Please model this.
Amino acid sequence: MQQRLETERLVLRSLTRTDAVFVADLISDEDVRRYLGGPVSPEQHEATFARYSSGKNGEMVWVVETKTPHASVGLVFLSPHRDNGEAELSYQFRAQDWKRGYATEAAARVLSHALGDLECVRVIAETQTANLPSRRLLTRLGMTEISRHVRFGSEQSLYATGNPA
Model:
């Protein structure tokens, strides 16, 4: 069972069926999905929501909501990385909520939860090298770029925190 997490301004909670419209709007947004393979087609919305909700393979997904005013602003994920199974941090936030510090605040809380409560040795994050805002966010979290590689036709930067696995 996934824990509810909080920060000064945010609540991070488990995904519920009532979040389907929010998730559909988020994954349809071209700006949000620019470095994530592009918008998800309407035909794939239900399957994507089901995958996010399933908790399969140890994936945890939190809906990020502001406390005041109460609004859903993004998603934060903690899941096994495709290459080595280490805990991977990822996130998607509504474009209109960028530059408000929500992504940094929420990701920092999940990172703290992973390294502390879940006792992960380290947490990694992978982002397109061209995604400068995401790379800056990972650096603010204390993560360091450890490698680059090509995946999905684009150069990716792999970041890590903690001790080597």
Q: What stands out?
A: The mean pLDDT is 93.
